[in-house]
Amino acid sequence: MKIGLYFGTFNPVHIGHLIIANHFAEYSDLDKIWMVITPHNPFKKKKTLLDNNHRYQLVLEAVEEFPKIEASTIEFNLPQPNYTSNTLAHLQEKYPQHEFCLIMGEDNLRTLHKWKNYEVILERHEIYVYPRIGEQETKPELLAHPNVHVVDAPVVEISSTAIRKAIKAGKNCRPLLPHSVWVYIDQMNFYR
Length: 192
Fold this sequence. Notes:
This protein is about 35% helix and about 15% strand. By secondary structure, it is an alpha/beta fold.
């Protein structure tokens, strides 16, 4: 099985995340999409970052009606800080029958050369890239790499940061969140 790994803090998960994940589930050769929740780094203080399990619950709620998309806690028990190369090595060892690919925005592809063991990632894993609005150019040699696939996915500019600020300010941002995610956030009184 070919699995696309879509990493994020998902704090909170919103419809933009689902639009991207579903696009790859439906319009690429990926069989499944795992939304990998990036854990809270214990060495960093982030008051606005919900506990790992709450963010996992939000993603579970969000993907409930999408059979090709799953919530993944695979990084929760890996050593901190998390490096994508370590996560990929762990997954290959745990699930040798699967092929793991990365899903990332073009903004992340631009900084890929700064990632730990990025050459190994590029050599061993396909990378599916969705467009982001930005001024910077992506290096042509990266775009031309045989393992990099730029996909004509929808451009979605919704920000979890903006959603958190809106909730704190008492604004109605329900249209930006799956209904079940909004209900959970509201019931738990998150981001207020």
